[in-house]
Amino acid sequence: MTGPLSFAVLGPVRAWRGHFEIDLGTRQQRLILALLLARAGGAVSIAELVDLLWESEPPPSAVNVVHRHVGILRRRFEPGLPTRAAGSVLIRDGAEYRLRIDAESLDLLRFRRLIAQAGGSSGERAVELYREALALWRDRCASGLRTGGRAHPEFVAVDGERFAAVRAATDVALRAGCVHVVLPAIRLAAEYEPLDEALQACLLLALAADGRRAEALATYADIEHRLADELGIQPGSDLREARKRLFDNDVPADGSRSRPGVRPAVMRPAAPPGGAEAESWPPTERELSPATRAEPPAQLPADHPYFIGRRGVVAAAQELLAEDGRTTALVIDGMPGVGKTTFAVHLAHQLAARYPDGQLHADLRGFDSGDSVMTPTEALRGFLWSLGVTPAAIPAELHAQAGLYRSILAERRMLILLDNCRDWDQIRHLLPGTGGSLVIATSRRRITGGAGPAGAHALHLDLLTDAEARELLTRRLGDAAAADPDAVNEIIARCGRLPLALALVATRGVGRTGLSLPAVAAELAEADGRLAGFGDAHADLEAIFSWSYRALTPGAARLFRLLPLHPAGELSTEAAAALGGLSLRAARGLLAELGAQLLVQPGDGRWRMHDLLRAYAVELGEEHDDAAERDAAIERVYDYYQLSAYAAHLPLQPQVPLSVPEPSERGVTGRGFTGRADAMAWFADEQRVLTDIVARARERGRPSTAWQIALAMQNYFQDTAQFKQWAATVSAGLAAAGDDPAAQALLHRSLAGACYFLADLDRGLSHLQHARVLFDRLGRRAEQGHVENNIAEIRLEQRRYHEAIRHAEAARALFHAEGNVRGATNALLVIARAQGWLGRHSEALGMFVEAQRQFEALGDRHGVGTTQAWLAHTYSMIDDLPQALVIWQQALDTFRGARATHHTAEVLVAIGDFHSANGDPALAGKAWSEALAELDGTDSPIARRIRDRLLWHR
């Protein structure tokens, strides 16, 4: 990369060399650079940088850490710079650092230059300079680098320069009569500072001057509401003066410049397609009610005073409307209680200014029972009356009502809010045809798609984030929430971030004298996931959930009640089929029905239920299903996982395959697997469930299920470097095995493997001694061979090479006697490694070649990869470096193909060590970084070794 350096701090911190962006490293390194950039070439002391990185007590090594981060940044700006060289970009002056930077290489300096030029100009030239300066801003200064929810004062000060420039630009643009040039920048700044009255006043005046008086008035109302709700104050003099000027004579009286498409209120609808009503079509002027000629309908419910968050969905809606001029409907779906209605009303208020001919609203009651569901005819009659059609002029038939309704909407830009829609059949007649009107609809089902028109788009509403949930409680409870953050966190967790539940708890918190938030949190915790923990609000939650439950078919209702019996919150379609005693096809159909209202699908073929819906289902199950049926469902699930785990461990080529489990007495079959990758993916998806069953199966009188699943997971744990989880799961299996000597022996040997990878060699030997005694008593010679070979592996690690050869040769003899080719080849591999460490490289190479040939004949990819790795290592020991690199690459390909991340990482470490020893630190660091990425954050011994290498390397 060549070219000059350039930097940006007016938004996310970024840097480029020429046209190539520079990776700025960790968050701490980006923070340091952000403060240096905000100083724009000014000095920053080391003490300031320490305070920047550590808000509370800095560690004793803080100054050294700062120096190290600065050194890394220097080398990113000047590649090839020696480790302790001063450099020419990020320079040190005593106890301070500063960037050597010119006026054109930093956006902040360019911004200041343009603002100064604008201040010395006038008219349209000044406005254009302000526009160019404000266009440099992409977000807040150093966005994304706030610490503890607060921005550094230096960044806040730079933000202040932007807002001052916006105010100055507004004044100049208003005088020059070209406010449209800077209106986007004014809008954006006002969004960032919604409580800054001076900025909001600028926005009001700019909107009015651009002919958007209706939007300005709506904006004022929104600001007034926000100030009262969040600060408890009335608008100040700046805002009041701006509102007063909205009615001055020097701005358009009707906002017509922003509404070129508005037609007169009285329209002439097109004729219907025949029918009894055709004689009276269209309604005469006399048949239209006074509402037609008066103010447009304004039926939106009030916006919720405590609405928070959902910015991403609001932005998605606005983007759809901006990009697709044919959008006629936004259909918001989500689970019960997620806040669909509240959001739809809020979104409607946000968009209302775009639809100056009014708003219509109807609750279609789609999930109410019986006759209370609103029909399309009923909804249309109400809308037509609101649109000015007298009752006598409303046609009797549905298609004629819809035709009249669409004819009227074709002449207007209106917003129609349809709440609680059941399906497309209920709302398709209520959608506008041509013209510029918009429907916002809510449904518990995802009803867009092939059945809906092309102009309809789905918006899915998910649970609140943790931050949004905390904001909701804080806004409702005020100081009480701030005083008890631990209680707030507990309440959020118990409510599962469901807006309805949080709102009900907040109501309880403020509605019962003397009831503290810790007490509310304690009640929820004591309820142990039951809805009863919500006290009086229990009935409200139950009622909301029941609307969806009552709409289910009997089969789906039964499965809904059984789902909480599954050990985890997420399950596959196959597991649900076992739980319900269903065929896979029947389970798919019922889950699709549930998924429309009561489940979410986080991944292909997997399903999840919200905790509170789960609690509701538990209560329904205990009420409607007897204990025998529920117990049988659990047994079916355990059968499914035991059979599937056995089937999944076979493609992983275990050294000691488990014996085939007994067929299920309940007719359950396990899952089939297409190969190793499929099996590994299944273990990853079901790991939590499987380990939970291992821990609980003994209590249900199924000890063999516990230890068989534990052993089936061994190769998965080994290949994914989850050695602690391996040890914990097999230990639980050993506790369940009781007095079964065969199970105990297998589990002791498996635990020895976990100890080996955890570098606890003495404990590993102890488990192997237990296994050896048990296998000797049982007369199982092949298993004794595995024990001898495992002891040889440990002796290799202890550098007792002659002992390792003795144990491996004993293992090989046992395997040959039993005809176990794979076991004998593994023993040969151990002997070859020991010979290599003893300096007998020629003998070792011959043995490795023979072992690889045997593993390839067996189809054992794990064995092939291991042999290739040691063969490459041996070539490196005799300085045949090209051959070593070729075979290491073969080992990488083999292990990656087998999804054996731990072994892939081991090979990459060896490659990195090789490059480091041969004086190529760049290639060494690259290989070690790739190795750490393979382990994906695990805290295994190899991961710690890699991190130590990388730290030393830097």
Automatic annotation (TrEMBL):
Statement: the UniProt record of this protein carries the keyword Transport: no
Entry-linked InterPro entries: AfsR-DnrI-RedD_regulator, BTAD, NB-ARC, OmpR/PhoB-type_DNA-bd, P-loop_NTPase, Sig_transdc_resp-reg_C-effctor, TPR-like_helical_dom_sf, WH-like_DNA-bd_sf
GO molecular function: ADP binding; DNA binding
Biased composition (Low complexity): 259-279
Keywords: DNA-binding, Transcription, Transcription regulation
GO biological process: phosphorelay signal transduction system; regulation of DNA-templated transcription
A Pfam family this chain is assigned to: BTAD
Domain OmpR/PhoB-type, residue spans: 1-101
Region annotation (Disordered) ranges: 246-302
Superkingdom: Bacteria
Transmembrane parts of this sequence: none
DNA-binding region: 1-101
Annotated family: Belongs to the AfsR/DnrI/RedD regulatory family.
Protein name: DNA-binding transcriptional activator of the SARP family
Organism: Micromonospora coriariae
